[in-house]
Amino acid sequence: MKGVNAYLGRNLRQYGILAALVAIILFFQVLTGGLLLSPNNVASLIQQNAYVMILAVGMVMVIIGRHIDLSVGSLVGFIGGIIGLLIVNQGLPWIAVVLIAVGIGMLVGCWQGFWVAYMEIPAFIVTLAGMLIFRGLTVVLVQRTVSGMPSSFVSIANGSLPPWLGYFQDYDGVTILIGVVAIGGLVLTQTRARRRAVTAGRPVKPLGAFLVREGVFAAAIAALTALLAYSAGGTPIVLVIVGLVILVYSFIMGRTVFGRHVYAVGGNLKAARLSGVDVRKVDFLLFVNMGFLASLAAIVTTSRAGAAVSTAGNLYEMDAIAAAYIGGAAVSGGIGRVSGAIIGALIMGVLNMGLSIMAVDSAWQQAIKGLVLLLAVAVDIVGKRRAGA
Length: 389
Prior knowledge:
The protein is built from 16 helices and four strands. By secondary structure, it is an all-alpha fold. The strands form two sheets. It has a two-stranded antiparallel sheet with strand order 1-4.
């Protein structure tokens, strides 16, 4: 029991964020009379906030590397405008346009990464300039709403996986299968990781804490699976996209040399340089990656709207930054996790949906989200001061 308590104490910040998400969900579930967690609303929550989750993953990496990116919202609007013009006005196949959009996002990332990494201009200035440039270009390109997207493209963010396995008492079989595979994969990977750590003689979580944590996560996946399986469409296609992003980037940040270098550069720049880390290359790749994820968010956003508009992506950068900080990223860099950013994005999404169901004015919604962000950063700073003391 002492080992469990010690483990929980070391991870108080991580579990505190998760507990805050659960508390907010229960709070709005009561206030909305059970509407928040209705199956269709859960599916809508994922579809409406997919762009935040995607951008938050890239943003938390940038923040860990001691930078910030203010241009992602404008970039989403700019790329979304290009997508609309190429599909509707030029008649290009949407699959080809998606590839072009990804290429443009990565080129913009190279452009901004060059100024930050090799010209050593602060990322705040470079991306502030990018925010102004790409917002202006968006307004120039998309002077009126570009609608008429093909249904196959619109289904990326609005559609669901086909019910290939049929239904079991009104529950979608495909969704049930995905949930079972997810739980099995969680148990298998975590058990193997623990076994390898024990064999190598590395410190591991106390068995009790390990079982409790995996049990809670498995129960959460099972609950989400049941809700989605009972919804009108089953598993949203965009959830598969977001899930792949989470898995890939969790692996990159936790198991690769590049991920370790990002943490090293953000944690102690001088020590990273002395250790032989190519800081310029790390900074450059962070912004190339942010451009890639911004293009993915643009595809999802344009598909969700079914049209390209000049106001697309407005304040998206603030949602992504807020999600990263609420999810535990440190202002000074070097600290943060992909899973934390996703939890932060879910907190933002639940706040949006809960307040919308309660018909709270949008201005008050912005004020409440601002207070939540301020509180999250304050908790991080106070925790660091206490640790220093």
